[in-house]
Design brief:
Layout lengths: L1 H8 L6 H13 L1 H8 L5 H8 L1 H5 L11 H15 L8 H10 L4 H18 L4 H17 L12 E7 L6 H14 L4 E6 L4 H13 L4 E2 L7 H14 L4 E6 L7 H15 L4 E11 L5 H13 L3 E5 L9 H9 L3 E5 L7 E3 L2 H8 L1
Parallel strand pairs: 1-4, 1-5, 2-3, 2-4, 5-6, 6-7
Antiparallel strand pairs: 7-8
Helix pairs in contact: 6-7, 7-8, 8-9, 8-15, 9-16, 10-11, 12-13, 14-15
């Protein structure tokens, strides 16, 4: 049943024909569908499936509308290089624009050298060909890190979410929990950021609003101890997914990073769970500083994934290419706004299509 819900909820990544079929099915069997969908378990899905407007702005539909700044700074400027009236293409201009868009020096050099090599080999200088070649090279970089989470397991699935202060980590935990609940999973969250009282209150508010179970304790409680208790409680309650929010910490502060390592050690000792996911949340608008954050979190914790937030507010979305090319760590989700539904699976072809 959860797979069926997931297919509807992720309608944006299906073919248009499938979307039309879903709407037609709802219309033809309206009464039966309403009875099923209006049950308490499915109340969050009702708006999305029955209301066409909700379908368009669903969790995975928001990606289409979040790149206005990136489109202006990246797509329009790149197109101007390829399709100006004089019809003269300059690789140096392209190189400069990629650097200004935070694609990064090494990744930019790689792209430029590959284009130069291929165009020389084919003796091809047609601008349309070159423009499509650029898209192909950039898509190839992102394909490597397109790896959705596989949560269809019969044990408790534990996710540890880490990141520095201010990247939207706690908000992202709430979005993840809301999404998984909406596709039929039982979800619980852990407010393990016990160093910032406001973080506990923030996650409590999100959990209360969307009826998501939460484990928390008082300010300055040992987070590793809290996580240990929360996991055992989740196992008893037959929870499918447990998402752990951690304290935002400076990536260059060793004692704070050691605290995260302690939490991870505690989780690994618990039997009867699936724990393969340590995911860092990165603010897409901070540019090259995100490279240092991913580097150090990965060295200390061994990251399994990246979630990029605030893509709706940056004109330099090119940082995702630099991160992908340098670390090869899966980019699993992108945050595209402040609403609880503003979270999208990362799909390389759709991302490249949107920015070009």
């Amino acid at each position: 049943m959860s797979n069926r819900k997931e297919n509807r909820f992720f309608s944006w990544f299906k073919k248009k024909e499938n979307n039309k079929d879903a709407v037609t099915l709802i219309k033809n069997d309206k009464e039966n569908k309403k009875k099923s969908l209006l049950s308490p378990k499915n109340k969050d899905m009702t708006k999305i499936i029955i209301n066409k407007k909700e379908i368009k702005t669903s969790i995975l539909g928001s990606l289409r509308n979040c790149f206005n700044k990136t489109k202006i700074s990246f797509r329009n400027k790149i197109k101007s290089i390829f399709f100006r009236k004089k019809n003269v293409f300059n690789l140096e201009e392209l190189e400069e624009q990629l650097l200004l868009s935070d694609v990064g020096l090494k990744t930019t050099d790689q792209i430029i050298n590959e284009i130069r090599k291929e165009t020389n080999y084919l003796n091809q200088n047609n601008n349309i060909f070159l423009y499509n070649l650029l898209k192909e090279k950039m898509l190839n970089i992102l394909k490597v890190v397109e790896k959705p989470l596989d949560i269809n397991v019969d044990k408790l699935f534990v996710m540890l979410i880490v990141g520095v202060n201010g990247v939207g980590k706690t908000t992202t935990v709430g979005k993840l929990a809301y999404f998984y609940k909406s596709i039929g999973k039982s979800v619980s969250v852990v407010a393990a950021d016990t160093f910032r009282a406001a973080a506990i209150e923030q996650l409590q508010e999100i959990s209360s609003k969307h009826s998501i179970p939460i484990s928390f304790d008082s300010y300055k409680t040992d987070p590793a101890s809290l996580v240990f208790k929360a996991i055992h409680e989740a196992k008893k309650s037959k929870i499918n997914i447990l998402i752990i929010d951690t304290a935002g910490r400076l990536h260059n502060k060793v004692p704070l990073m050691e605290e995260l390592k302690k939490i991870k050690r505690v989780i690994k000792k618990i039997e009867g769970i699936i724990f393969n996911e340590t995911i860092v949340v990165i603010d897409a608008s901070i540019g090259q500083n995100s490279i240092n954050q991913v580097k150090l979190f990965n060295e200390y914790l061994g990251l399994s994934g990246i979630i990029l937030t605030k893509l709706d507010g940056t004109s330099k979305g090119g940082i995702i290419f630099n991160l992908a090319n340098k670390f090869k760590i899966p980019v699993q989700y992108v945050g595209t706004g402040e609403k609880i539904t503003d979270l999208s699976y990362f799909k390389s072809s759709d991302f490249v299509k949107e920015i070009f």
